[in-house]
Amino acid sequence: MKRLLPAALLLSTLAATAAAQPSDAFPRFDVPGEEAATAKLRDLFWLHRDGFTNCTLWDAWLPHGTLWAATEAAGAKHAREYYRDVFLSRRIDDEGYVAMQQHRGLAHSDGWPFPTFQQAGGVGWYFSTAGEAYLMDYFPTKALTSLDGWELRGATVEGFDPVLGLKLRIDADEASLATPAFACKTLVAPYIRPEWGATGLPADAKASIAWLLQGESDWKPGRAVAMAHPPATGAQAFANVPVHRDPGYDGTLTRVKLRLDGAKGASVTLKSIITAIDTRHPITNINFVRGSSEFFNWTGDVPFLKANVARMRGAMRYALKEFGIEEHHLVRVPWVGHSGRSGLTFGPKGEKTLIHGEGVGNNYWDLLPFGGDDGLATIYLYDALRLLAGLEATVVDHPEWAIPADGASAADSLRTLADAVKAKFDATFWLPEAGRFAGWRDRDGKLHDYGFVFVNTEAIAYGIATDERAKAVYDWLDGRRVVDGDTSQGEDIYHWRFGPRSTTRRNVETYTWVWSNPEGIPWGGQVQDGGAVLGFSYFDVLSRLKVHGPDDAWAKLRTIAEWFGEVQSEGGYRAYYAKPGRGTLQGGGPAGGLGMDQEFMESILVPQAMLYGFLGVQPRGDGLKIDPKLPSNWPSLAVSGVHAQGHVLDLKATADAIEVHVRSTDGSPLTLDLPAAFAPGGSPAKVTPRAGATLRFPKAGR
Fold it and tell me: 574 and 522: one domain?
């Protein structure tokens, strides 16, 4: 499914594509004897260096690839300033849900932009279409300039503004605006979403949404759901009104009424009002914690942490409560349309029925009905719990930061919960016969398995998979074990060369209802059905490093580098894949089988394997952990331009020593956590770097 690119992001993507050669200041990966391959990885990094976005979906991936890279004299200043603002300004609603912030959509305003109300069979009215690029691109709409068919009480129409829409003056203590009659199932209208503004609204005024169901002619007294006031400035804001929480909200919706009580004298604007699918993702709170934690770990920005730590803790508390984590020890999504069931059903003769409102997406893989008991969200939760535990422990270790601890045993409690989540993940999602993890379990208890390679490699990379399970997964991916019923087996799993297929079993029946004709696209012609995404090859490399060691991981990364060099020699992704038989690219247009440019910003992840994988770097709020894992034929690995907290460093590892060269420093201490063999005096060690100095840690006995 197409994701609309914000203009700034599109420009940065095009700029990155046009700039062929890395600048001299850009970080380097140096391995004697592997200069050609490492140069290509650097070129790949350079090509995707500018994929910044404030969309929560990428919080755990893009900061991972940008916060450390000293791309200028000031180090990683640009990336740090950008993501500092992103995390501090990330919208969190009154209940604690962290907004997605992709672009203006046609569903829950804090969720994913689709499925839209038009796709759901819902309804919507626009009094202004200004700034509605997504609407006008896909569902061209003429703004209303009258209230024909509407019912207005206690208010006067003052006009129709091309930007703000309908303008009303509230004349009575009880005012309301009711829509024309319509009919749509409540399943596709769990939320009513007005976008409105007001000035002169008394503080004690009450706003609410009421409704009629099929067979009702009179508005029921007291049956309404309250909604928050818009900003007092008159600026317009969305309200996502959860009408589905009313126990009687079931059947066919026929009218909606916006009601204002105690608002006499106020001026109100209404841009639009629509029925809205609940397109929130259960991973946003989790990703916000992950991204914010990584930001602090790389920057050591204590003022940032002071300003954001309560938001991070609150985001985690919301996730723990909303998804029943402390009870279920996995992410159980309770939202309407997120049952994990398919939006497509089939009769005894194969006749297809679309279940509008069912199978709503939950993550990056937005056509697949993850949900119910969500395996991928549980993987991300596990990572977030461990990151937050590490952060809480660091806060306790640094009382001079004057950041109140979240309880004396917060870190221990989070780690204990993470351990329970790991055990439950294995018990719930492991498929003994297939030897791999399922993607999710729906509310009927059915486990869904299409050979989700990304679920399995991320489970290994993030550490939620046990060593035994990880080995079994790679027996499958490497073709030592064939899974009956899979469309792709053995070597064909790596058909696309740069990485494994996203899935290995053809799926023509389990999607959100919006993706209604999957059989019309051939196997491998859709990213989420046998295609592949370049960025997620990163998790394959990291997982191989864990399972088979550095030689195997480097062989795979080297293959990616060679592929990239071939692609670039023929003019880049678009030119290379324009040739028949090579696959179809997705990006900024129709669906395709391969994702690597435009909205696929996570391509920046692939070269990060050099730093996080082979050099074994893990940032912490007060320093670095360095645990190298070098292939047997590498004399050394050096990564230049690593901006860690207030220091710009060049890092190098050999079999005999770890070296830290200090390019520049702000004078703050640096804590280095090294393997025991390189730290005879004990680890971690606190040092005070000096610009121009090289800190050398020889291996014991060398």
Answer: yes
Q: Minimal CA–CA distance to 289: which of 316, 307, 270, 256?
A: 316
Q: Is 520 exposed, middle or buried (0-12, 13-18, 19+ CB in 10 A)?
A: exposed
610 belongs to a structural domain: no
Find residue 185's DSSP bridge partners.
252
Residue 259: beta bridge partners?
A: 176, 208
CA-atom Rg of the chain in angstroms: 27
Pair (84, 155) in one structural domain: no
Is 123 within 8 Å of 274 (Cβ atoms)?
Answer: yes
Q: Distance between CA atoms of 44 and 365, rounded to whole angstroms?
A: 24
Cα–Cα distances in angstroms (integers) from residue 495 to residues 165, 499, 504, 569, 581, in the given order: 52, 8, 11, 20, 12
Residue 105 lies in a domain: no
Q: The CATH number of the domain where 267 resides is what? A: 2.60.120.260
Cβ neighbours of residue 66 closer than 8 Å, sequence gap 6 or more: 49, 52, 76, 79, 83, 604
For the cut 80, the answer to whether the pLDDT of residue 681 exceeds it is: no
Quote the pLDDT of residue 19: 46
- CA–CA separation, 195 and 528 (whole Å): 33
Q: What is the pLDDT of residue 587?
A: 86
**pTM for the full model?**
0.96
* Structure token digits, residue 690: 């000096």
The rounded distance, in Å, linking the Cα atoms of 439 and 459 is 11
Look up the CATH number of the domain holding residue 391.
1.50.10.10
Query: What range defines the domain where residue 444 resides?
Result: 7-15+36-99+281-605
Tell me the two tokens of residue 265: 């004298």
What would the pLDDT profile of 456-478 be if each residue is shown by its tens digit?
A: 999 999 999 999 999 999 999 99
In a domain, 27, yes or no: no
Mean pLDDT of the chain: 95
Contact predicate 437/379, CB 8 Å: no
Q: Which of 254, 276, 298 is the last residue of a domain?
A: 276
Pair 157, 238 in one domain: yes
Beta strands in 293-377 (DSSP E): 331-332, 344-346, 352-354, 373-374
Q: Kindly state the tokens that stand for 494.
A: 């790596």
Look at the chain and report how many structural domains it folds into.
3
Tell whether 293 and 239 lie within a shared domain.
no
